[in-house]
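Support reply, case 0932

Customer input (verbatim):
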Amino acid sequence: MAASTITERPVHRVENLVSDEDQHILNMTPDEARRRLLADDAARVLDIRGSFALVARDGERVRLARSLSRPLRYFLAKEAAGPLLVVADRIDAIHRFLAAEGYTNQFHPTYTRMVPAHHVTEIALVGCPDPNPRYTRFFTPAMATLPADLDLIGRRYVEAALAEIHTWLDAVPPEEPLGVLFSGGLDSGALLLCLHDALLQRQESPARLKAFTLSVAGGGADAAQARRFLRETGLEFLLEEIDGPADGLDPRDAVRAIEDYKPRDVECATVGLALLAGIRERYPAWSWLFDGDGGDENLKDYPIEENTELTIRSVVSNRMLYQEGWGVDAIKHSLTYSGGLSRGCVRGHAPARRYGFRLVSPYTSPNEIAVAEGIPFYAISSGSHERLYALKGEVLSRGIRQVLGRELPVFAKRRFQHGAMENEAFDALFSGDTERYRGYFLAQYAPRA
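Our regenerated output:
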């Protein structure tokens, strides 16, 4: 990363570009959170509630940690006085800082490093050409501890989501409006019902809540599904449809926003940017949004057949596979990007950040993931893909029925990007070509003639 003349010595300078105002910590101050990060017991980081991306220094020790719902990156550069560690939530922020310091020649986007979710990353002595960080896990949920009782599992899962929502609502001023990025699917549908119920429990007006649904050029199946969901639940008054112009969607802009090139994340971010742009245009002062990100990962609702590296056994036997990827010690682990949702979180975080929203993803909280990891997936599915895919509908519908006393409409699974537009428009817009998207990203940093 830096020139080979660096010998091992302590980090000389740490520049943290993530301000305390960017932290959304719900139960302590940023200084208290940093003290926990420096504690001998890494598990104390688990006490930090909310959304955070932290760096703390104690002499020669530098520690970093983050929530699953947001990125945190770092880069090591060389100065005459010693190594310089730059910490930020975006690659382009690191690049701009280095350019201002006169160190552009040391930078390449692939030399940046992502702090993996659920780990404390420690850099004590920095050698060359790369730092040798030490990872200590602070969140290790037990696997398959619950009985194969779908009613019990559903109740525990929805109770955890509702508790997380209440924790966030405690931090939101009661006059602030609340939005849900809504398709009428299982995750956003259960989230909307929980938010509505939480407001009623708190004797606050549900009129402050809206369900925002995107329709590109008047097409896509999500708008009709959202209308049907809200009609069946008696909440039609919450719906707000956002019409996105087809010429306003640009996958290259999504690549710039998320600083990544995985096709599914590029597609999701492309339509997410259109939805958020429409909300911002209509409501210039709106701040708080909730989404269902993390729900598919928790309940393992991804088509295994689309990934030749996966089997149902690997999906259900590897702790938090969809949240973290193969793990920090695996050969397949990307130092630049991390893995799983630890990498993919940018698909929601970056578009929301661009348009000035505070995005809350309750399903990504450790308490919710702990319930999900306790599900005996293999015992319930008996190795059947179809039973595994049906599980999320069973868990959420049973949980909503028991906890809220309501029926959750269940529709066939559809990705956000597919539901926002007609199939022909989708095929014309997205190439699905990883290398093409990677080229868009790297071209931003290519030397100019």
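We compared this against your earlier run and they match. Two observations from our side: The chain has two domains: 9-137, 150-443. The chain has a mean pLDDT of 94. Please reopen the case if you see a mismatch on your end.
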